[in-house]
Amino acid sequence: GEVAAVRPAHDGPVNRGHACVKGRFAHGFLRSPERLTQPLLRGRSGLEPVSWDVALDHIARGLRAAVTEAGPDAVAAISSARATNEENYLIQKFMRVAIGTNNVDNCSRLCHSPSAAGLTAAFGLSGGTDCLEDVEQADCLLVVGANPVEAHPVVGARLLQQVLRGARLVVADPRAVGLACHADVHLRPRPGTNVALFNGLAHVLLAEGLIDEEFLRLRAGGLPELAALLDDYPPDQVAAITGVPPEDLVAAARLYGQAQRPAIVYGLGVTEHLHGTDGVRTLANLAILRGAVGTDRGFGVNPLRGQNNVQGASDMGALPDLLPGYGKVSDPAARGRAERIWGTPLPGHDGLRIPQMFAAAREGALRALWIIGEDVCATDPDANRVVEALDACPLVISQELFLSETARHADVILPAASWLEKDGTFVNFDRRFQRVRPALDPPDQARTDFTIVHAIAAAYGADLGCATPAEALAECGQVAPAFAGISHRRLDREGAIPWPCPDPDRPGQAKLHLDRFATPDGLAHLAARPYLPPGESPDDDYPLILITGRRWAHYNSGNMTRRSGTIELDPSDRLDIHPSDAAHHTVRDGDAVLVESRHGQATFAACITEQIPPGQLFCTFHFTAGRANALTSSHADTVTSCPEYKVTAVRLRGIGDRP
Fold first, then answer.
1. Which keywords are on file for this protein (predicted)?
2. CA 330, 89, 310, 399 torsion: positive or negative?
3. What's the total number of domains in the chain?
4. Are residues 128 and 198 in the same domain?
């Protein structure tokens, strides 16, 4: 069959019958002639079609050789935030049970790993604190480092509707993003100065008594330490660091502090920094000071996730330090529970994170890397070094829809099914499990990730159990009690269910922390974190700052949207440049420009716009021709290794007419 149209369900709890341009029109990739339809194996003359049996045998022999020669930690897997929960669960189980390593990670490492670390430290759980229905009841919205109008249009529309109903709006973003034109206050901090900005807002809340003293006394810890730190962040000092005028900082703090039901929504502009986890912690401080989390007096702190299952991939344990349900691999109790269910001892030391995998490959320590549904050569930072890592690794397996930039460097390529061709569940940004069912069969010999993982396990001599996705989710609920009340049958009957949901006879928790926080002492934890500079700053050689992100018509590496109707809406990448910078470099709108960083170079068409401040540039990573991530650095969050995509020092020169 063919997909004629995509129509969102009118009873969908989040979309409510609406879909963004990508959801409605980016389905052409499903039957693209470029879809991979049979396995490919690298031979003397390049990649050649082979049977599944030949491909699986080659993979199994390569995995055995890696383990025999260098031990289980010589193998690693990058799971997929576009795969289902059940597929992610099976992938991490294979790595831990069959291979014997915790070397499994997913792309949340590159986006919201600071959210997981920061929210867990502050509140005890890694998910957003409130559901979207609650957030859209807020009387003040603080939207930070996010562009939901383009990157999360359904959410963006609902937030805008609440503003039009009278909610006050504070936007904090260097760029004039879509919601900014509706904001009561638009804060435009210099990239990399979030912690100073959030400390400045907290300073005003404390100085003007806009705090919930009873909540802080009964349900929070760390106030004396934070108060002492905030003495160093008066508005004038914060203005010197961030460039935000003192009067704007005070106005924003008063709007948030005087609201009856404030909510914080944030995106990758908070997390993708050298100190991204500190950014999440200091942003969470604002909700704690106001008593606006875990109460009926506000709607907490809520990250906008990127890919359709980036929350679920982490929930299922596709992380090097955490098991399904976020039990630490180093915790004997959490590890013991999984060992009892899986029937085998598990390694107790953390595995490699994605950047560490690439480093280990370049050093010769990693002998096999399995990449599932991720185009790391296009999406990961310092792309030239990523290519070096793949080329140095003896066995690279790419499980993909298309011959991506990453697949071109693989030894084995396995054709995979898309989200419309598989059965299972996803978890959205506000922790809701939702069902997905196949509308089409995969083309030709392509298989679902679930089937492929089982096939690789069988070729390797391992039996993972969990014959169906429903069985996999049921077993996951045994390993992770927070999911024990969720099943395919219940989802089919009731619709979306949020976690935690430990009981099949009770609803999940849409709003977290009402009775106590999930921290060991039951308290919310304030964090006294000083501002520290980003990994790179402008200088005489590289005087501009590059910010990377998304645009409305495309999705991440663009492998799907560039093969769909949305390509006609946005056919090529461009570099946003402020008019003053364009004039200084004698660049006209549409001219070809060369951007150089300390790590690489890329070419774009110039787009002269006042949406970007002077001294800053903006581009996306949707197009392979631009190679934006050849520019970005290996600087990463000091806690989670999330890359600093939002601050790269660059220089610019015009090179002629439109490329």
1. 4Fe-4S, Iron, Iron-sulfur, Metal-binding
2. positive
3. 3
4. yes
